[in-house]
Design brief:
431 residues, alpha/beta, eight-stranded mixed sheet, three-stranded antiparallel sheet, binds 4'-deoxy-4'-aminopyridoxal-5'-phosphate
Length: 431
């Protein structure tokens, strides 16, 4: 088929009329489909049910050092959980602290602590005139909402397939002492599914910040979340703590991880890895906040998995459910949109999202069209700080939650909406 860019006014009008009729028919179906959030599907949740059987009233509730997990104490996590989460995060057990059920909550806590009390003795951000954060875009909306909540000014940094624009990152970080951090999803990024190259990771590790309390917020949410079992089809990135240590910069990174998309979102375990100096500073704060996190859940996870190898087998079962969904959508996009010059999309090898870039100025209209036909998408703009996509182009697609049949239906409505909105743009230009 001819691309829309090459069609005459009359051809565009005919195509638009035909597709509008189809859209009208679909609307009559009063569908209710959700492709908005990166939630595991029902089938994925079912995979971890047996974890609920590893503890019952007859269980031995002590950790490996003999501490009773039913009671208060062990602020930083039981040793076997630190080992398991350390293995998942490619760091040693002593390089991390286990928190509660959410890594996002740890990130919020880090920013909050920096704001009220300061990091490692630095001036609390609330006493500074200006605090700025670098935000690779498109990125994770909930990161941006944390920094917005604290009134931190956010600066867009363009992403590419190898990671954020490092020339820009280096410039800001080394020249501007008000730049206190950068949000990173280094592996299977949200929403593009990109993984940082070795050069990008090394350049991060070698940053020379103007601010003593600058930190890289390294959210490794998708560390073992591959879509393919063959190692040659899995992304591998350098381990950041190690690289920072080698570069003489051990303190500039906080690395976050959780089992939200391994077991149960909201009922998993989360952890932060960092240098000894950072961990000590975090623990000081944490000891005021809590007498200890949920050690029974730590025990449940450790006894269920036993090792990283078993966790990886479990992840391959998730992949068997997720992979066909990603591939079905990608095939559909190619079939319906390929060659039309109406946008481009990513083809990730892991993570939870596909990123779609529509023609400039079309994203909001596409999301609105989808909503009209009963398909809920992440709001256009959400992948940018302040919800403002300067090109109104990026749309985050989350294939995980709907069942396959519904996903295909939602995908068809999406591609139809993309075509209609793009045609409107081309017809406007042809006038
Ligand atoms: N970070 C990223 C990049 C995510 O995509 C998500 C979930 N969508 C989270 C963090 C949330 O993690 P948690 O459940 O551990 O808070």
């Amino acid at each position: 088929m001819k691309s829309y860019a090459q069609m005459s006014r009359e051809e565009l009008r005919r195509e638009y009329e035909e597709l509008s009729l189809r859209f009208k028919e679909i609307k009559k179906g009063k569908l209710k489909l959700d492709m908005s959030r990166g939630k595991p599907s029902y089938d994925q949740l079912e995979l971890s049910n047996e974890m609920m059987d590893v503890l019952d009233s007859a269980s031995y509730f002590n950790d490996e050092t003999g501490t009773d997990c039913r009671n208060y104490g062990i602020l930083a996590g039981i040793p076997e959980a630190k080992r398991l989460m350390g293995a998942m995060s490619e760091v040693g057990p002593d390089d991390m602290i286990i928190y509660g059920n959410s890594s996002l909550n740890i990130m919020f806590d880090m920013i909050s602590r920096s704001y009220t009390h300061g990091i490692c003795g630095a001036t609390p951000w609330c006493r500074l005139d200006k605090v700025r954060f670098l935000c690779p875009v498109p990125g994770y909306d909930r990161h941006f909402r944390i920094t917005e909540y604290f009134g931190i000014e956010m600066i867009n940094i363009p992403m590419s397939e190898t990671g954020p624009d490092m020339d820009l990152v280096e410039k800001y970080v080394s020249e501007d002492p008000s730049v206190k951090g950068i949000w990173c999803v280094p592996k299977y990024s949200n929403p593009q599914g990109y993984s940082y190259s070795d050069e990008t990771v090394r350049r991060f590790a070698a940053l020379k910040p103007a601010a003593e309390d600058f930190r890289i917020y390294w959210d490794n949410a998708y560390s073992i979340h591959h879509l393919y079992d063959d190692p040659s089809e899995q992304d591998v990135i350098l381990e950041i703590l190690d690289e920072c240590k080698k570069a003489g910069n051990p303190d500039i990174v906080f690395k976050f991880i959780s089992t939200s998309k391994v077991t149960f979102p909201g009922s998993g375990i989360a952890a932060v890895a960092a240098s000894g100096r950072n961990l000590k500073d975090i623990e000081k704060h944490m000891s005021i906040q809590t007498i200890g996190h949920d050690k029974m859940n730590q025990l449940r996870h450790v006894r269920y998995f036993g090792s990283l190898a078993n966790m990886q087998i479990h992840m391959s079962r998730h992949a068997a459910i997720l992979r066909p969904k990603f591939e079905a959508l990608e095939d559909l996009f190619e079939r319906e949109l390929g060659g039309l010059e109406v946008g481009s999309w990513t083809k990730p090898r892991g993570g939870y999202f596909i990123s779609f870039d529509a023609l400039e100025g079309c994203a909001k209209a596409i999301v609105a069209r989808c909503a009209e036909a009963g398909v809920k998408l992440t709001p256009a703009g959400a992948t940018y700080p302040y919800g403002k996509d300067p090109h109104d182009s990026n749309i985050r697609i989350a294939p995980s939650f709907p069942a396959m049949k519904e996903l295909i239906k939602a995908g068809e409505i999406f591609t139809l909406s993309v075509k209609l909105v793009s045609l409107e743009k081309y017809m406007g230009q042809a006038e």
